[in-house]
Each structure stands twice: as structure tokens, then as C-alpha cells.
Amino acid sequence: MKRRLNNLFFAIGVVAIVVMFFTFDVSFIQLWEYIKKADYWLLGILILWFLLYVLNALSWRTIIRGSGRCSMSFGTLLRFTITGFALNYATPVGLLGGEAYKIMNAAQFMDVRRATSSVVLFSMMHIFSHFWFWLTAVVVYLVLACNGYLVLNAPLSLLLFLTFVFCCGGIYLFVKGYKYGLVAKMLRFVSRIPGLRKWGERFTERHREDLLKIDKQISELQSQNKRSFYASFFLEYFGRILQSFEIFFMLLLFGVNVGDGLWGYMLAFLYSFLILAFTSLFANLLGFLPMQLGGREGGFAISVIQLGMTGGIAMFVGVICRLRELFWISVGMLLMKVGKSCA
């Protein structure tokens, strides 16, 4: 059964790579020109994302250790993390293939309930940190606008206000989820969807005890093991900030001039931070698209142009990020086949 599921996940990833490769918005000649222009910065971006995956794996390990000992080595956990994110990129709505894959493999080293709760907690923390990241971006934009570095008009004010309300609402829901559990409530919600009602009711009734124990483990991390909770949150939030360097490198490559000296570099980084924040928000709102096709590129275009830069920069950033995704999806699929579990 496990082999069949692994083969299914692998097939999904391969299809995603093929689709991704043939849906670039540029010709192969232009694509090669972009790669040559990126030069060694492309290698820097790929290394940066390896560091981000290490932070994600550390966050997941922190959550696992918050509930007890585990024999899974960090190398094995990192492999599952990279492959899990690769599958999430490849599946519509995200978090469908990767989380199931991680649960299935983590269950080799702990009981299924604990594996499930650790993966659910990691996914919750990953999304929870995004809400704080987007909320921080609203504050950063307002500070820069008040100091004359960015435009603030009525439509933008409304957009920032809606983003603020959305983030505060998301944070509130996640705080409630951490306090009282989330899995059982999600399944009750699924049970109200036409066509899934009978399946949801049967599944909930059959696994009621397991679901309650998973929710208990989720609530215990925040209430009883606050050190693990905040350490995991810090790693995830810091990872979002570190990811801004991907865009920062490309702005430097284009020679974007936003000021002189150290302040100029700091301002360029803050612009990169805002571009990433609002692009990721836009892309996640369109998360039903496989690999967020079109959503991310559109987000880059809107964000970059809004900050007074050219559409050419947006195209370059979008293509390089797509190449980076293609590389790490390929690595994730390769690790699924050649990696060996080790304690």
C-alpha cells in the first residue's frame, strides 16, 4: 500500500514538472537569456532555499520533540520536508499531497496519531507565520508611506485595511485552533459539504477517539509546551523574512536604486519584503491552482509595478522563481526514489 501511494505521489510530481516546464510565459531562447542574466545569483537563490528547507525541518523537529522522543534522524526529516513541499507545489489547493506523504513516512518512526498531529501542527504553524508575515507587511508599508517612500491613496488604503482584517481574523482562528484543537472541527465542516456528508460522518464516527487525541496533542503544544511552540513559530517567521533575500538578490542584479549607502540597501530589502508578502498573499488566495500557475506571476507584476519598478523586473523575478521551484520539485521527486530512511 505504501509503495503504491509513493508511486502515486511520484507520478503527480512528474506530471507537475512537465506541466511547469511547458507553461513558462517566455520562449526557450528568452529563458536561457534570463538564466545567463541571473548568473551566479541563481546558485545563491537555490542555496538560500536549501537553508529555508533546513529551517522548516528544524521547525517540524521542534514540534515532534515537544511531544516526546523520536528516532527519526534530521537528514531523514529534511528529506521528507523537501519532498513534502515539492508535492504541495504540485497539487491543487496545496497541502494535499505533501502532508499525506509526510504523515505516511513519519509513522514509521512514531505512532500514527503522533505523526498526524505533528504534521498538522507544522502545517498550522507554517500558515500561522504567514498571517503574521502579511500583517507585518501592512505595518511596514504604512511606515514607508508615512515617510514618503511609497504612495498611499484611497484604493491602497482600502486594500491594506482589508488585508489587516483578513490577517487578524486568520490569527484569531488559529489561536482558537491551537487552544481547542482543529482536526475534529474541520471534519465536522467537511461533513456539511454536499456529497461529502455521509463520508465525513462515517469517518468521524469511526475515528472519533483518534481525532480527539490528535486535537489534544495540538492544544498541548501551545498550552503545556510553550517553548516548543514559540521556537517553531520563530523558525517559520524568520524563514519568511529570509526568503525576501531571493527578491533582494534580483533587485540588486537589476541595479534597482532606491537610495544611497546602507540605507539604500535596507530600503531595497524592505521593498523585497513587501513584494514577497503581497505576492504570496495573492498567490495563496489563488491556491486552488496547481503550482499557483499565473497567480504568483500576477502577484509579482502588481507588487513590483506598485512599488514604481518596471514590468521587466516582474517578469524576470517570476521566471527565476519558477525555475527555482522546478529545480526543488525535481530534487523532491528524486529524494522520494533514491533516499533511504534512516533512524
N to C succession of SSEs: HHHHHHHHHHHHHH
Whole-number mean pLDDT: 78
Integer tally of domains: 1
Q: In angstroms, what is the radius of gyration?
A: 21 Å
Tell me the major beta sheet. none
**Tally of strands:** 0
- Proportion of strand residues: under 5%
Continuous helix count: 14
Task: Note the gap between the termini.
Answer: 22 Å
How helix-rich are the residues, as a percent range? over 70%
Characterize the quaternary organization of these chains: single chain
Shape: globular
Spans where pLDDT lies below 50 across 5 or more residues: none
Indicate the structural class.
mainly alpha
Secondary structure topology:
Elements: H1 2-21, H2 28-38, H3 40-65, H4 74-90, H5 97-106, H6 112-146, H7 154-180, H8 183-190, H9 197-206, H10 208-224, H11 226-253, H12 261-285, H13 295-306, H14 311-338
